[in-house]
Amino acid sequence: MAVNIHWALFSGQSFLWEQFDIDSNYYSSIVDGMPLIIRQLTSYKIEVYYYTDSIIDHYINGFIKRYLSIDIDNRSVFTDNFHSLYPEVSARLKEYYGLRVIRQNPYETMISFMCAQGIGMHLIRRQVLMLRNTYGEKIPITFSGKEIILHKFPTPESLAAADPLKLSICTNNNRERAKNIVLAARAVVEGRINLVDLRDPEIPLDVLRTTLCKNRGIGFKIADCIALFGLGRFDAFPIDTHVKQYMGEWFKSTTALRNLTPTTYLLLDAEARTFLNPKLAGYGGHILFHCWRKEIKKLRSF
How far is residue 122's CA from residue 132's CA, in Å, rounded to a whole number? Predict the structure, then answer.
């Protein structure tokens, strides 16, 4: 399956990867506690450097394939009926089948999206970097003879003990948002948010969303982002202004003309499942989201 690493890492689903200053073809992060450096070689081949003595090559190969959702055939995300009904949109999407929805750590996904509400992606990435640098463990690695400092994502315990006022530097100076992050971290530590149990694919999506929304600072959109990008629920369909816009423009939704209230959100969610594969609605929605931002909005910063 084809993969476009840059689109996967810089399309608004993850804010934990960085491009090297010395060579922008390389990307670095810490995934599940493991420092990784990756580089795109071809559309079907990537190079991976990993820093651990505890695993063997065949494990990292499977790990990366799962992380990048190589098991999903992106050509099957959109049905034949979709291609027939929306030929112009379908033609636009062909270029974007290399975009993979990545399977991320649910706790890191939850905190990242709570940290980053309502601001642009470039600023989100900077805020999450500040969060890691301020509260995360420092991990030095050597690459091409040079030392590189990476930071792990802060543990639930470190954020649970954080002063919301200090943490607010990582939430665009929003103290209420910082307080909500501290409360969410405490809930994880105390077991009131059990993200392991929430991985259960048998949990109905509306139940999963409602469960996550019981926590301050998590509304429908953030809950669906956690589900889609952190819990592997490719049926979860996060809706923001861009999604609302493309549903109105490309799919002629009259509901998209309304303000994005909770009621409108649920109506749009239901509508999306009428033209997208319901089991992969969020996966397809993210490809549409990225295509819309690049093709129609002409955005260049991600």
Answer: 16
**Radius of gyration (C-alpha) of the chain in whole angstroms:** 19
In contact, 10 and 302? CB cutoff 8 Å: yes
Q: Which two three-digit tokens encode residue 23? A: 């060579």
Q: Angle at Cα 28 formed by Cα 285 and Cα 36, nearest 5°?
A: 100
Can you say whether the dihedral through the CA atoms of 39, 34, 170, 283 is positive or negative? positive
B/e letters for 43-80, b = 16+ CB within 10 Å, e = fewer, are eeeeeeebeeeeeeeeebeebbeebbbbeeebeebbee
Give residue 300's pLDDT. Answer: 75
Q: What is the mean pLDDT of the chain?
A: 93
Distance CA(85)–CA(66), nearest Å, equals 32
The span from the CA of 190 to the CA of 87, in Å, is 50
User: Pick the residue with more confidence: 72 or 302?
Assistant: 72
Q: Is the pLDDT of residue 3 over 90?
A: yes
Q: Give residue for tokens 């559309």.
A: 43
pTM: 0.95
pLDDT tens per residue, range 143-197: 988 899 999 999 999 999 999 999 999 998 999 999 999 999 999 999 999 999 9
Which residue type sits at 95?
A: E
Give the single-character DSSP code of 198.
Answer: G
